């Protein structure tokens, strides 16, 4: 059964079929940034479950149907950048920031910011050049919501016989367009059912449909459920004081839903990079052509307390370091029931892909690159641990080879830094199972249930052993080789002996100190960097 139809950015032409009003289970209809013409069908008001309708950036004309404005579940109506005209139904004021109507010069209404009163607006509108008219359309074929001028001068009117001929041709063309668009909708519906694109998440790692999000809204008292940054976000209201946020800084990170959808091509499965038990990751491209990664997190997986959630965002936006993946921005969508984090795209994958490499594979890291990566990871951890200015000290909590991304200069970048401050505690705990299975989880966590800076140091030590040995699983044999300085048994065979014995021995000892059973006997990350700096200066 159709619940979501997203055909944005597809260069669709023609008019909107009135038959859309018969898709009674439809909750989201997104058609922005196409080349659609004609009027908005009043039949869309028959969609009793419709929560979001996005028709922005098209060439639609006529008025906003009163029947559509009265759609009972409608929360978001975006009609920006069309050629709509006429009186805006006053009932749409109930949507508040959910109603977006900018750049429709012919619209008027009372109580809507930036809209003229209809009495004044009609005079101004008639004084401008004549509005768009769809040449050759028979009036009988124009949807009931159209608001076209009926006057025409003799010079501009065709003869009766000519009009009749054009009307017949237009009728045929109109039917063809309706059938074509309807076929596109049907195909898109089938494809979306097959691919499961464009919904939020459930426990089986597929995404929630919007009607499921509404059920979450009904049952949850979380203030996050009512947030929608794409239409303005009240918790960041400039009038607020004492919340510790810089409005200017936050605004520089804010994306709207349209930008996120455009970047990911409406969350096309071709751009899907991977899924976890609480998020999906898409590759995307911003308007400036820069490559990004969009991490989609269901709001049910985020902190339920609004102040905690905002504090988490504040922490994420404060993190800036050469060895951390850069956060480009964020967006929250009530309609989709998701929060989006937009990061720089890192082209060379994660460190995990450079472990257990078969001989002859081109992904083998050279010795100098391995030392550089170890040093870069340590610097990234030190940045997180230190308190400087408005930045508070932070423990990563989930360091692993998978969280270390490699850029095109083989520079290591830590990902998901501070993410635990944004997502719910039960989600954080669920991600620890993988860390424990791979040996990254410090032993004291099982008794204290707490993360400290020494927990990160422990995970760092495990990563160092992985880089030296070139393997994911650190066995007792590898530990013993490091303890006894048997370098040939410790090192990755793919290096074929092209490494320094003394450097490998020192790195092995640093790793062993970091993974000491007792956190009190582990070095601080500052001490580790001092050792690494001394090692690199002697290279």
Automatic annotation (TrEMBL):
It is found in: Membrane. Keywords: Leucine-rich repeat, Membrane, Repeat, Transmembrane, Transmembrane helix. The keyword Transmembrane helix applies. It is a single-pass type I membrane protein. InterPro entries: Kinase-like_dom_sf, Leu-rich_rpt, LRR_dom_sf, LRR_Rcpt-Like_S/T_Kinase, Prot_kinase_dom, Ser-Thr/Tyr_kinase_cat_dom. GO terms for cellular component: membrane. Pfam families: LRR_1, LRR_8, PK_Tyr_Ser-Thr. Residues 267-536 form the Protein kinase domain. PROSITE patterns: PROTEIN_KINASE_DOM. The keyword Transmembrane helix applies. GO terms for molecular function: ATP binding; protein kinase activity. Its main location: membrane. It comes from the Eukaryota. The chain crosses the membrane at residues 166-190. PANTHER family: LEUCINE-RICH REPEAT PROTEIN KINASE FAMILY PROTEIN (PTHR48006:SF28), LEUCINE-RICH REPEAT-CONTAINING PROTEIN DDB_G0281931-RELATED (PTHR48006). This is Protein kinase domain-containing protein.
């Amino acid at each position: 059964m159709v619940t979501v139809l997203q055909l944005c950015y597809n260069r669709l032409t023609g008019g909107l079929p009135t038959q859309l009003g018969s898709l009674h289970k439809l909750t989201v209809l997104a058609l922005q940034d196409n080349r659609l013409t004609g009027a908005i069908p009043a039949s869309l008001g028959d969609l009793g479950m419709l929560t979001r309708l996005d028709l922005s950036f098209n060439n639609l004309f006529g008025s906003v149907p009163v029947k559509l404005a009265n759609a009972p579940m409608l929360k978001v109506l975006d009609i920006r950048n069309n050629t709509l005209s006429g009186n805006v139904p006053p009932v749409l004021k109930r949507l508040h920031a959910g109603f977006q109507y900018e750049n429709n010069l012919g619209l008027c209404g009372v109580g809507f910011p930036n809209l003229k009163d209809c009495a004044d607006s009609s005079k101004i509108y008639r004084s401008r050049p004549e509005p768009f008219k769809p040449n050759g359309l028979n009036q009988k074929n124009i949807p009931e919501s159209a608001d076209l001028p009926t006057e025409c001068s003799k010079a501009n009117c065709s003869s009766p016989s000519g009009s009749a001929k054009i009307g017949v041709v237009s009728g045929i063309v109109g039917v063809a367009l309706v059938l074509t668009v309807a076929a596109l909708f049907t195909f898109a519906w089938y494809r979306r059912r097959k691919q499961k694109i464009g919904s939020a998440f459930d426990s089986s790692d597929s995404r929630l449909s919007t009607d499921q999000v509404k059920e979450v809204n009904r049952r949850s008292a979380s203030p996050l459920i009512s947030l929608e940054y794409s239409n303005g976000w009240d918790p960041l209201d400039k009038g607020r004081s004492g919340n510790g946020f810089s409005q200017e800084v936050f605004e520089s990170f804010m994306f709207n839903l349209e930008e996120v959808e455009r970047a990911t091509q409406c969350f096309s499965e071709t751009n899907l990079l991977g899924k976890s038990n609480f998020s999906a990751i898409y590759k995307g491209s911003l308007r400036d052509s820069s490559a990004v990664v969009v991490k989609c997190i269901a709001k049910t997986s985020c902190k339920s307390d609004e102040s905690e959630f905002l504090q988490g965002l504040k922490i994420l936006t404060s993190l800036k370091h050469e060895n951390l993946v850069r956060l480009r921005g964020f967006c929250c969508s009530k309609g989709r029931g998701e929060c989006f984090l937009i990061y720089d795209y890192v082209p060379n994958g994660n460190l995990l892909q450079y472990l257990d490499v078969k001989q002859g594979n081109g992904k083998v890291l050279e010795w100098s690159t391995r030392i550089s990566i170890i040093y870069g990871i340590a610097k990234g951890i030190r940045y997180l641990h230190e308190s400087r200015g408005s930045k508070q000290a932070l423990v990563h909590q989930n360091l692993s080879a998978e969280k270390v991304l490699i850029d095109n200069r083989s520079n290591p970048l830590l990902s998901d830094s501070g993410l635990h401050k944004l997502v719910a505690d039960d989600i954080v705990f669920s991600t620890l199972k993988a860390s424990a299975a791979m040996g990254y989880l410090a032993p004291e966590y099982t008794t204290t249930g707490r993360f400290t800076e020494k927990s990160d140091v422990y995970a760092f030590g495990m990563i160092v052993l992985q880089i030296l040995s070139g393997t994911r699983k650190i066995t007792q044999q590898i530990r013993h080789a490091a303890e006894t300085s048997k370098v040939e048994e410790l090192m990755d065979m793919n290096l074929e002996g092209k490494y320094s014995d003394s450097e490998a021995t020192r790195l092995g000892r640093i790793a062993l100190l970091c993974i000491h059973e007792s956190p009190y006997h582990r070095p601080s990350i500052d001490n580790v960097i001092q050792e690494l700096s001394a090692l690199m200066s002697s290279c």
